[in-house]
Amino acid sequence: MRTIVVGGGISGLVCAYRLRQLGQDVLLLEESQRAGGVIGTIQQNNFQFELGPQSFLSNPTLLELISSLGLDGELLRADAKAPRYVLLDGALRKVPLGPPDLLGTSLLSFGTKLRLLSEPWRRSQPPDRDESVAAFVRRKFGKDLLENLVGPLVSGIHAGDPERLSLRSAFPAVHQWEAEHGSVLRGAIKSRPPKGTLRPGLCSFREGVESLVRALTATLGDALSTGTRVERVKRGKANGRSGFEVHVNRRGREETLNSDALVLAVPTQAAAAIAGQISETFRELLGRVEYAPVAVVGAGYRREQVGHPVEGFGFLVPRKEKLTVLGTVWSSSLFPGRAPEGMVSFTSFVGGATNTQLMGLSNEQIAKAAEGEVARVLRISGAPVSRMMQRWERALPQYNLGHGNTIVALEQELRRFPGFFLAGNYLSGASVGCCAEQAVKTAGEVHEYAAAQALAEPGHAESDFQKQA
Ligand SMILES: Cc1cc2nc3c(=O)[nH]c(=O)nc-3n(C[C@H](O)[C@H](O)[C@H](O)COP(=O)(O)OP(=O)(O)OC[C@H]3O[C@@H](n4cnc5c(N)ncnc54)[C@H](O)[C@@H]3O)c2cc1C
Predict the structure, then answer these.
(1) How far is the C-alpha of 290 from the C-alpha of 238, rounded, in Å?
(2) What residue's CA is closest to ligand 1, atom 1?
(3) Do residues 283 and 411 share a domain?
(4) Are residues 254 and 285 in the same domain?
(5) Are residues 322 and 380 in the same domain?
């Protein structure tokens, strides 16, 4: 049984790695010269900057993966109590992390505080229709919670527009808590992990998030072929069984590879182009998923240039503040080793679904705008010692209204094509942890498919897939 996985981002890497753990013969094809997709860590003037994700929330799948790759000793955990801030009327205000903070915060009105604290006793049910995050927050709590906390948080996580994001697709747990317990707070309390279990926390590695990619890449060895772009796919025969003909361009040379199973772990635009050759329905459904653009702007300064103590996680910016920056992570405060001695570093996110026109500006213009805004908020004087900028035109898939129906329809269509699978950040969560969980699930489905095939044809010849690589 041979499986080709297309796309060497975290989804494809984890899927291929898991398939190998399950004893499957796998080849991972990645278009770029390096694997990792949007994950990338760079060292510059002794600063360490992340091009994409700054950190990841640990979940059991990721922790198991990290252990199995021998990376436990490299793992860094951020302080869970590190303060986070929201910029309101030009000043940074602490985000309340518990009920006592909530009472004192100036981010919310008295009425909203009352509605939050009394929510467990005001039972409600979600509407049948797909409800936006904004409509949900207004229905349950109030406008100021949406504008001052939830909106900025949604920008920080999804780079999304709360008026368009679907609550049940983007925050399925919150939807479920209300549906099952009549109260979000009751549901959240009931679903807390038992005492003594490790709570999910923000993590990275000593050498940055890319350490995970490097370890996966090293383990895969020849099973990963970089510089290999999948151009076309046809359903055909492999080893006399139904399978796939995969037409690739490997460093300028056209080749045809055969496989019994095919996993597409690429963003929807690429997936639509490839899967559209198998069925027009795939092209149509995958084409529905929208993406938000994001620019990542990193800057390093000498400590004495910065007026603010910058101790904590960083700050988020409500849209009504009219800044281009969605939020800024205080990178050197979050994890050690991000800035040299006596220096600090920040990473800002710009653009998102609510400011797509910003991407019409040049890199220099975007970086300058972000640096100027952050400098005003943190009272920074002078130019950065080091700076970086990374632009992602299609950074994050948007789990907008209707997304859930698109995914259900995709799953239905997949059932018509045994041996064909999808993985990626548009299916069941965009975070690194969700991608890893989805990839492990997909690998399990491929494994089951292989077992069923083996049962149907017990004497099939062993393959040597590496020869094709
Ligand atoms: C700016 C930014 C900040 C983020 N911050 C966080 C964060 O703090 N925490 C968190 O958990 N998550 C974060 N995320 C989300 C998370 O990093 C991504 O959702 C996840 O890494 C996506 O992985 P993926 O493998 O699904 O897709 P990708 O990383 O997009 O990988 C897809 C791969 O497919 C390849 N490919 C495409 N077409 C072809 C083809 N035809 N043939 C071969 N290969 C092809 C591409 O080259 C690419 O390598 C962030 C994302 C971005 C962009």
Answers:
(1) 35
(2) 52
(3) yes
(4) yes
(5) yes
- pLDDT class of 240 with cuts at 50, 70, 90: low
Reported as a single tens digit per residue, the pLDDT across 100-154 is 888 889 999 999 999 999 999 999 999 999 999 999 999 999 999 999 999 999 9
Say whether both 263 and 332 belong to one domain: no
| Same domain membership, residue 316 and residue 271 | no
The protein residue whose alpha carbon is closest to atom 26 in ligand 1 is 424
pTM above threshold 0.85: yes
Q: Which one of 190, 224, 251 terminates a domain?
A: 190
CA of residue 394 to ligand 1 center, whole Å: 10
157 CA from centroid of ligand 1 (Å): 14
Atom of ligand 1 nearest to the CA of 432: 11
Least confident among 76-85, 165-174, 193-202? 193-202
Specify whether 322 is located in the same domain as 386: yes
The atom of ligand 1 lying closest to the CA of 55 is 8
Could you identify the atom of ligand 1 that is nearest to the CA of residue 228? 43
Domain limit, last residue, from 396, 426, 451: 396
Q: Which residues contact 116 (CB under 8 A, 6 or more apart)?
A: 102, 108, 141, 145, 185
Whether residue 406 sits in one domain with residue 267 = yes
pLDDT band at 453 (very low <50, low <70, confident <90, very high): confident
* Residue 31, domain extent: 2-37+208-289+400-468
Q: Which residues contact 271 (CB under 8 A, 6 or more apart)?
A: 264, 282, 286, 422, 424
Q: Residues enclosing ligand 1, CB less than 6 A?
A: 6-12, 29-32, 37-39, 52-56, 229-230, 265-267, 270, 294, 296, 392, 395-396, 424-425, 430-433, 435
Nearest CA to 399 out of 324, 296, 303, 288 is that of 288
Distance CA 406, CA 83 (A): 38
Cα–Cα dist 342/339, whole Å: 8
The CA 205 to ligand 1 mean position distance, Å, reads 18
| CA–centroid distance, residue 424 to ligand 1 (Å) | 8
- Whether 135 and 230 share a structural domain: no
